[in-house]
Amino acid sequence: MAETLVLASASQSRRTLMENAGLAFAAVAAAIDERAVERSIEHRSLGPAELAVELALQKALEVSDRFPGALVVGCDQTMSLGQEVFHKPSDRVEARTNLQALRGKTHRLNSGVVLVRDGAEIWRHVSIADLTMRDFSEDFLDDYLERCGEAVMRSVGCYQLEGIGIQLFTTILGDYFTILGLPLLPLLERLRALGEIDV
């Protein structure tokens, strides 16, 4: 049994998922610049799913350096339309542009999770969800952005499915945990296989 399980994330939703699953852990934000990591690995031409796992790994490795002996859970998520990777919008204008690009199309959420101990990767996994946005009107988009306010810039896709964002979609294929950015079922299975939690 590991002395400590550490989640390398400042995400409240990820912490809540792990707490609700009954896991005992510490949560520590990774001190990395995700865009700088992306630039440093551009030459590797990673696909969006591979990029999510690589970002998760870099977070876990950074936190692992600070917690010797701990089993560190790193996770990250990319949102992609084909091979194009989107980032959180910097303002409402960019949020509108992103939503217009996604409208009427199916985009993908790629949620990567890794386990690291003492700087060594033990396991990696990526789960995928496909989300199809409906072909909503410009009037709907105006109203949506107005109702969301600043919250529209808190997520890469400019939506929270647990709120009004659900009205953007016609079809969602993938589990809830993948959409929230932590493939919890595969993680729990691996923690059981490693003897970190009860079978």
Automatic annotation (TrEMBL):
A single GO BP: nucleotide metabolic process
Organism domain of life: Bacteria
Keywords: Cytoplasm, Hydrolase, Nucleotide metabolism
Chief location category: cytoplasm
Listed Pfam families: Maf (PF02545)
A single cellular component GO annotation: cytoplasm
EC number(s) stated in the UniProt entry for this protein: 3.6.1.9
Gene3D superfamilies the UniProt entry points to: 3.90.950.10
Catalytic activity, as annotated: a ribonucleoside 5'-triphosphate + H2O = a ribonucleoside 5'-phosphate + diphosphate + H(+); a 2'-deoxyribonucleoside 5'-triphosphate + H2O = a 2'-deoxyribonucleoside 5'-phosphate + diphosphate + H(+)
Residues the record marks as active site: D76
SUPFAM superfamilies xrefs: ITPase-like
Compartments (UniProt record): Cytoplasm
InterPro entries, alphabetized: ITPase-like_fam, Maf-like
Known cofactor(s): a divalent metal cation
Gene Ontology MF terms: nucleoside triphosphate diphosphatase activity
Entries under NCBIfam families matching the protein: PRK02478.1 (NF002690)
Family (UniProt): Belongs to the Maf family.
HAMAP family registered for this protein in UniProt: Maf
Function: Nucleoside triphosphate pyrophosphatase. May have a dual role in cell division arrest and in preventing the incorporation of modified nucleotides into cellular nucleic acids.
Protein's UniProt name: Nucleoside triphosphate pyrophosphatase
Organism: Ciceribacter naphthalenivorans
